[in-house]
Design goal:
Elements (H helix, E strand, L loop, with lengths): L1 E4 L6 H10 L4 E4 L2 H6 L2 E4 L5 H10 L3 H9 L4 E4 L1 H4 L19 E5 L10 E6 L1 E2 L14 E6 L1 E5 L5 E6 L3 E8 L2 E4 L7 H12 L2
Parallel strand pairs: 1-2, 1-3, 3-4, 4-12
Antiparallel strand pairs: 5-9, 6-8, 7-10, 10-11, 11-12
């Protein structure tokens, strides 16, 4: 069973449907016992960094997330869920994120002919051997919706990059922690393969 963390973020139901489509049981929950007894945990999310961290703390999910990571259960952050794994974000300078991984969440720089947020399909440069991308061709397209991006301090954590005004660290992996800036649940067959790879970890 996979627990999908419920902290009032957008886009949670589509993650649940994608997991169920792949034949895996999924539950949207903020119950600590359910989360800790599940096989894997997903932190999805659409919204603002500061508001999301406030909700995570209001629902007492922060320590649950730390305990999941410490337990070595596979943990997947999606979109805002990736950004929340870091300590700071340009979006909400006053807010403190989870600080599980090392890096910065920065605003995508303005560039001629590019709209911000990035909304739509973009191709990935995949790091050879990245576990989430097993069976996914380099250059595959996935679906993004974001105005802020990750610059990881540890290049060895970076599982895939994309380019949109700047080089964006689009996916990271470290130990049992995985994250994607894009939305695998909205990324057609490629996204389903990525979620399948997570389920099979």
């Amino acid at each position: 069973m996979i627990s999908i963390l419920d902290y009032d973020a957008g886009n949670i139901k589509s993650v649940e449907k994608a997991i169920q489509y792949l034949g895996e049981e999924a539950i949207i929950t903020r119950d600590r016992d359910v989360i800790m007894s599940s096989d894997k945990v997903i932190l999805p999310g659409v919204g603002s960094f500061g508001d999301a961290m406030a909700k995570i703390r209001e629902y007492k999910l922060e320590n649950v997330i730390y305990d999941v990571v410490d337990s070595k259960k596979p943990f997947l952050g999606i979109c805002l869920g990736l950004q929340l794994l870091y300590k700071t974000s340009d979006e909400s300078p006053e807010a403190t994120g989870l600080g599980i991984l090392d890096g910065e969440i920065l605003r995508i720089p303005d560039a001629p002919g590019l709209k911000i947020p990035q909304i739509g399909w973009n191709s990935l440069n995949i790091t050879p051997g990245a576990k989430l991308f097993k069976g996914v061709m380099d250059g595959s397209y996935v679906y993004f919706v974001h105005s802020y991006y990750l610059k990881s301090k540890k290049i060895e954590d970076v599982a895939a990059t994309t380019d949109y005004s700047v080089n964006i660290h689009a996916s990271v992996e470290r130990d049992n922690v995985f994250a994607c800036q894009f939305h695998p649940e909205k990324s057609s067959k490629v996204g389903l393969q990525i979620l399948k790879n997570f389920i099979e970890l």
